Amino acid sequence: MKPILFTLIVLTFFLSENIIAQKTLLRQKIAQIAQTSKGKVGVAVINFEKKDTITYNGYSRLPMQSVYKFPLGMTILSQIDKGNFSFNQKIHITKTDLLTVTYSPLKDKYPEGNTDITLKELLEYTVSKSDNNGCDILFRLIGGPLKVNDYIHSIGIQGISIVATEQEMHKDWNVQFTNWCEPMAMARLLELIYQGNKLSQQSNDFLKKQMTETTIGPNRIKGLLPEGTIVTHKTGSSNTNDKGITAATNDVGIVTLPNGQHFAIVIFVVNSPEKIEIREGVIAQITKAVWDYYTQKN
């Protein structure tokens, strides 16, 4: 064997071993951070350019809460692309559409209902502002949660179940667990948005804009990242039950690295008895560990 070829083989071997060792250390760090939640944590990461993946409970079925407004928005936009809906069509909002015992900036702006807003505005309320009433109005428009479930499955994402509305989740604590997702499945859905080949460019850009400009969840994925980092994300949060357990503290998104590469990161913190600062801190610390892993390698 020629000396140069032998040297290249040896270098490749040691580089591969080093990468495996670094990834093992990252998984160990993720596990250590996750333990502080005293609940179950699911993590999935995909570096789009490197085709690199990292998981921790990445194939567990975990409750999404408002994270599912991202696939809901994607489904509505797919119908706009087909000509079944339009951004400018008017949606009539009645007072009965605006439930009072739920998070709803839409209700705050139009407390008496009896108004018409565009579908585009309703999407903005639902995806960017995470409006629960807006979510259920969109579900009624599309024909129910199962329509969203079917669309997401049709584009190749199987590890997800969308079957219940916000109103149904508010009525029964256990219903939220029927809206579940495997973290890796959600990461793959984010990858489809990054690739931009399932929606028209206009619809895809609109969805990314809503998820990038949202002000919700600043202490989660974005919490420990350098100021100005571009993060396209969607949060999800449950209530806390009478036993002090919070079923879901979630954030899923696409992070842009300094070198122009991107990674999807999905973090679900489930059934945690800890206060919100700890739960959000788990998300922020895991994201920072992944950020450090990719920035130090480059």
What is the share of helical residues?
Answer: 40-55%
**Content-based structural category:** alpha+beta
Domain unit count: 1
**Rg, Å, rounded:** 20 Å
Q: Ends: how far apart? A: 32 Å
Strand order of the largest sheet: 2-1-9-8-7
Low-pLDDT residue intervals, each spanning 5 or more residues:
none
Mean pLDDT: 94
Report the CATH superfamily.
DD-peptidase/beta-lactamase superfamily
What's the count of strands? Answer: 9
Q: Would you identify the CATH architecture?
A: 3-Layer(aba) Sandwich
Q: Counting H and I runs of at least 4 residues, what is the number of helices?
A: 10
Q: What name does CATH use for the topology?
A: Beta-lactamase
Order of helices and strands: HEEEHEHEHHHHEHHEEEH
Q: How much of the sequence is in beta strands?
A: 15-25%
Please summarize the sheet with the most strands.
5 strands, antiparallel
CATH secondary-structure class: Alpha Beta
Q: Shape, please?
A: globular
